[in-house]
Hints:
This protein is of the alpha/beta class. It is built from eleven helices and ten strands.
Amino acid sequence: MATQPIIKLHDGNLMPQLGLGVWQATIEETQLAVSKALEVGYRSVDTAAIYKNEVGVGKALKAAGVPRNELFITTKLWNDDQRYPKQGLEDSLEKLQLDYVDLYLIHWPDPAQDRYVSAWRELITLKEQGLVRSIGVCNFNIPHLQRLIDETGVAPTLNQIELHPLLQQRQLHAWNATHHIATESWSPLAQGGEGVFDQAVIRQLAQKYNKTPAQIVIRWHLDCGLIVIPKSVTPTRIRENFEVFDFRLHKDELTAISKLDCGKRLGPDPDVFGSDH
């Protein structure tokens, strides 16, 4: 099987382009999923404080015995913890049984609370202290990102946003790229592929390449230069989602999938979502 692609972040750190997401998984499910993923070959795992399953990730990492420098572990600062980012990170590190995380993200801008700039300043300090290797954000729109850069002079290495064939966020993806910010897709399969896997173009490509619809969509993310973290707790799917390095989609096929964009957002709107939700 071809080697998995690696993305170089603007701070020089390297990140696998394909990782495992563990949103909405219990501690037990997470432990099993991460163990299976590491066995298959994944080296990147994405969790968050609010998922309440960092303990499961930590247990799986410890049991697997994969050298720490081969792993890329992401977790996130929840909205209520934007006042105390260091405490939030220390709590996460304890649950993950790690001395540092590879990527620490502000989970939502939560503009009504208006603490994301001060939280970002603290993340910059946490990186300087070595508790985090790279820092970034989730669900930030262009004005939020511009404000971070204007007020601190430090651009996030990465912006993790809802992105799938039905919500392609091309303007935001392009803006990120112009500012050397990597774009990472959450809900990359549109939460189970509803409205995506049954599209004729996806079905035709699956048949052409002898792949599943999920594999076609994951390959689409990779070929668009996106970092992608499909979530699964099913061992066969975890393996299947990783078996996407032996083919590539052609430009006209990427264009055909791009026509599925209808602006369908499945998650909250970052301009209004916050602590009061």
